[in-house]
Fold TonB-dependent siderophore receptor.
Amino acid sequence: MTTTASPAVQSATSFIRSRKHPRAAAPVLTGSALAVLATLASPLAHADSGNDEIEQPVAKVEVTGTARRDVQAPVASSSDKFTAALLDTPKSVSVIGQEVISQTAAVSLTDALRSVPGITIGAGEGGNPVGDNVFIRGYNAQTDTYVDGIRDSGSQSREIFNLEQIEVVKGPNSAYGGRSSAGGGINLVSKSAQLDNFNNASVGIGTDKYRRVTGDINRTLGQNAAFRLNVMAHEADVAGRDVVGGDRWGIAPTITFGLTGPTKAILSYYHMQSSEIPDTGIPFNNPFTTGPNVAKNGNGTPFTVDRETFYGLANRDFRDTRTDIGTIDLRHDFGNNLVLRNVTRYGKSKNDFVWTQPDDSKGNTVLYGTVWRRANTRVTDTETMANATSLTGKLTTGTIKHSFNTGVEISRESTERSSYLFTPGTNNPLTKTFTCPTSGAETLYNCAPLNNPNPYDPWVTTRSVSPALTNVKTNTRAVYGFDTIEFNPQWMLNVGVRWDEFRTALDTAAGPTTAATRAHVDTDFTTYQAGLVYKPSANGSIYVSYATSATPPGNDGGDGLDALTVAVQNLQPQESKNFELGTKWEVLNSRLSLNAAIFQSKMNNARVTAPDGTSQNVGRKELKGLELGFSGKLTNAWQVFGGYTYLDGVVADNGYLNVGTTAAPSYVVSPYNGNVFPTTPKHSASLWTSYAFNKSFSAGIGMNYVDKVYANINNTKYAPSYTRFDAMASYNLNKNVSFQLNIQNLGDKLYFDRVSSPHYAGVGAGRSASLTANLKF
């Protein structure tokens, strides 16, 4: 549990989606080691070396009763499904609070997730849309993002201007959220109206045309209601990259009735739209495994070219998104710790782009020093309706205490997806393929030189939406229940079960060169979690847990990497099992949270190619790992947030591989058995620390380390390891005005932070600086 404190929040206030707006090997920690950590942490519970003269403001969750001035309330989750405090929840949970988000100057979800080790960001590809493509513990979690506990469907790049905190649940998440990966899920907690009046704003300027303005206004309406409005406008280029950049703006009003009564209603709306030229990255130095060109082999890393090199076409590339979401959240407190909640949400999103991928499928870079400008395109509209009803309460049976949550969820997702057609096409007209022995005008600029490509080449063509429209409709129904059973102050058992019915159907109209396609999945599955918790003292816990996940075919709802096809429609959901042993401690008068966990997950029915060439559930994946985390304050002036993750992911059985031809296939045992999971660094670590030197001045520094990451299951292409540093300094002019200077990538490190495509790696932003004025009035 890597955690940081955040304000008490009302959940289920808004939603995030997308739409168009045109624009031209580490040691494994053993059980004994965990016990040692617990022993070392326990004496710290009563230590207090803080400086009472410097009170660095840290938001706290609301508690009842009177607390000492130097005691910080424990970190809390917004989810009703966590039926115990996070300290006593037998699962790894990282909470990124408002203070860390603000100090690190994060302006997007991927920015904020950089502070959590064990998370990597994947790159877009032909079948994988541009957007938040998150991997948790080595598993793709692209569809496992939730807003206030409800699945956030549709490919998109999420903003943070309306977020109170970000909760990352590690390990199988299906018992909490339904269909999901084995890695975990991300819950975004929205801001909501509060019974207080305040006006906050920020104005930021910086290098690379950085401009950002946000506003946060809250007004009480009588004694029992309040209104809150969050707004944002942002534009910036990407430091160290040519052409790449864009703008976005958003607005999120919310009104709450019944703030002090037993019945509460939260009405909210979220709108965000963006327009940008997306990044193309750098192609890999393609290695040949056989044949006469082996002598020309590359080493599998991205090519060494100028950092600014952009292989896209400024006159062709664009990405426009739009989000429109409305939410009604109703709650009634019956008293006696019994609360009924119903949430209804409707949303529409659009992700529309033409984006150049520097493709090297034919070895153009090694053979000819050229790159094919592959046009990845998508026009996607996703519409979602969801409703969730839950009952939360506490009861005592004899001497045993129960804290429970049970509920029903239903949803309907509809995605319409198509692509763009170009006249003339995007292949090399000289070869009629994407082989590029030459580049320039004679190739219609579809082929570019590896070095010094011109993003302003006069590429002119006609663009139209393909008539091969794909429609995917997904319906789900689920029933779940959770209970934390407290036998006595030292022992408790956390159990949960969920049953899901999953129905999805794909219908693709015939295109100019393709036939109509239909496929469907009709399945149900049950997932579980259970954890035994031992509390050696009130401020600590040691736990052992077990959890499962299920990923059915068509898990992405028609807009992601895990698409429904005829080949996989009859397969069973992929099932993963995870065992975890961990410990959590709140020390230094609950100012500092510590955690450690070792875990092992297995997927025994992964979808792979069988000996007869069909797709079957016969593959196997295995992952072992270790996590260490810390969050909070060492003294009243010194804040820390960070952790370390070790992941050993192995593709144990990758099925069979066709070494023949389409006409005469010949399947052999996959040579990739035993290879490392793609997008999975063996070691990763992060640290953010800040110190308040006095009531006016504070400074902070951050570090992120990510080990080598493979881009393909062959393990022949990879992004090298890197370490990045950031810095911050802030000055409080008075109680209403403060200034914050942030320098990102302090050493101007050249690194690659996005893989998962075998063709290219995304380039991390270079050094940039921003100065923000934070205003209260």
